[in-house]
Design goal:
By secondary structure, the chain is mainly β. About 0% of the residues lie in helices and about 50% in strands. Keywords: Signal.
Length: about 500
């Protein structure tokens, strides 16, 4: 494989430690270059990537000439997954509603137990009128013909233009599709949600035979994120600034007790990519559509959490359209963006008392490499990040746009022998001077048991902390030192 000069702008970071991300140069199929490059058509794309519980990676995208779904699989080191058959790349065509040939672009992927659900945009004849297609694969990359009708689900009514905005598969295998619905090319745009049974059949118990269409907009709007609650209700995020967050009952009716008469609005145009719940709070993350900045919403079922950010919204001045974003189980938000010929991957904490995008809680990785673009990111079990997209001439001088993937690991710390979990604070309870068992550099914050921040300070090689001004009580001491996050309970006498 061709060797290419890499230009890296490695990780602008505002913590006291070294950069948080490093490119794993052992990843991929070009030894020592740190990337996976794949070429199979005239133009090739990865659009999304997911990881299984055992860290197998599955990528979806499409190849051109002809335009077909492309699914690829690797091990966590970027080498081909031997369980995915003789070739790690599989191509799939999907016929139109009358059996005609189509252009089909793979854009979404999700695990369904031991299956893969692939979501695609399908173009039948008129390039301005598109439909939605799903196929299901076995984990060896073969088509599961028991899914839908002869292995696929197709939603392409004549004269209807749809947009595939998001795909969500529940733990029980139910499938939700979010997007846009439009009659022809000149009518208004409407929100659309579909629910399918695990076997790819419209759920007749949801809305109108599995399809919910609501609201009407002069300009393009769509459902961009779906989160299914434990009680079966469905949280939706739309891209309009007024009709933005909704809560559906399991049958597709609206919960009128949610927010303000069934809707929450922020007056911020946003394309939200993920919604997750922590306790009674919800976080939704994505990109602003006008200022192209990363954004995090925090809200409850009654409205925006006004104690978070500005009126429940936190943003950063780091620009770039957020192609993908997710929140992990620890409340850490990850984004990938593209702007001006380079991509960015960055992270920030959303919970545990940290303020998103604030100094000490924001790590950034930038890469300008062969006009590469990352469209999807995911996380492995060791919290390393996999990004997938396209790059120029990766496989050879004239291959054009190639499928591209990288792996970002957590860097070697500037204090390599430092073990954050071993920090000891004493005396505890403390009267005035709290001591650490070693010198620390980074950020210290103290919160009351009600979650109110009562102390914040940057420290350099500090072994003590003066807490005499605090009232007696129980506090949470949050430390961010040498790239690690630590929380300790502290009792003030």
């Amino acid at each position: 494989m061709k060797k290419i000069l890499r230009v890296l702008c490695l990780c602008l970071t505002f913590t006291a430690a070294a950069q948080d991300f490093e490119l794993d140069l052992n990843f991929g199929n070009d030894s020592g270059s740190g990337y996976l490059g794949v070429h199979d058509g005239t133009t090739d794309f990865f659009r999304k990537v997911i990881a299984s519980n055992d860290d197998l990676l599955y990528y979806v995208g499409y190849v051109v000439d002809p335009t077909e779904i492309a699914v690829y699989s690797t091990l966590s080191d970027g080498t081909p997954n031997p369980a995915f058959g003789d070739s790690p790349l599989k191509r799939f065509a999907v016929s139109g509603p009358n059996g005609e040939s189509t252009n089909v672009l793979g854009e979404w992927i999700a695990l369904q137990d031991d299956k893969l659900i692939i979501g695609a945009r399908i173009i039948v004849g008129d390039a301005n009128v598109t439909g939605i297609a799903l196929i299901r694969l076995n984990l060896d990359g073969t088509l599961d013909n028991s899914f839908g009708t002869n292995g696929s689900y197709l939603y392409a009514p004549t004269g209807i233009d749809t947009f595939f905005g998001t795909l969500e598969v529940t733990a029980s295998g139910e499938i939700f599709i979010g997007g846009r619905y439009r009659v022809g090319n000149n009518s208004n745009h409407e929100y659309m949600v579909q629910k399918l049974t695990p076997n790819g059949v419209p759920d007749s118990g949801f809305a109108d035979n599995g399809v919910l269409i609501f609201d009407s907009f002069e300009f393009s709007r769509w459902i961009s994120a779906i989160h299914v609650l434990d009680n079966g209700q469905i949280m939706l995020a739309g891209t309009d600034q007024d009709e933005q967050l909704f809560l559906l009952n399991a049958d597709g009716t609206f919960d009128g007790t949610f927010g303000n008469s069934g809707v929450i609005s922020t007056q911020i145009f946003a394309d939200l990519k993920d919604i997750e719940q922590f306790g009674d709070s919800f976080f939704a993350i994505g990109t602003t559509r006008n200022t192209i900045e990363p954004v995090i919403f925090k809200f409850t079922t009654t409205g925006m959490d006004l104690t978070f950010g500005t009126d429940g919204v936190a943003t950063s001045t780091v620009t770039g359209f957020m192609e993908d974003a997710f929140i992990d189980d620890n409340g850490t938000a990850y984004f990938t963006s593209n702007l001006g010929g380079f991509y960015r991957v960055f992270k920030t904490e959303t919970a545990n008392g940290f303020v998103p995008f604030e100094a000490g809680n924001f790590e950034l990785f930038e890469n300008a490499f062969n006009i590469s673009v990352l469209y999807g990111i995911t996380q492995l079990s060791d919290e390393t990040i996999i990004g997938a997209g396209i790059g120029l001439n990766l496989v050879a001088d004239n291959t054009g746009n190639d499928m591209y993937a990288i792996k970002l690991t957590h860097s070697t710390l500037s204090a390599p022998d430092f073990e954050a979990a071993d920090i000891t604070i004493y005396p505890n309870p403390v009267h005035d001077l709290l001591q650490f068992d070693r010198a620390i550099s980074g950020e210290v914050r103290i919160y009351s048991i009600l979650g109110e921040e009562v102390f914040s300070r940057e420290v350099v090689q500090a072994k003590t902390l003066d807490v005499a001004a605090l009232s007696a009580g129980i506090y949470l001491l949050h430390l961010r030192v040498y790239g690690k996050r630590i929380t300790k309970k502290m009792v003030k006498k």
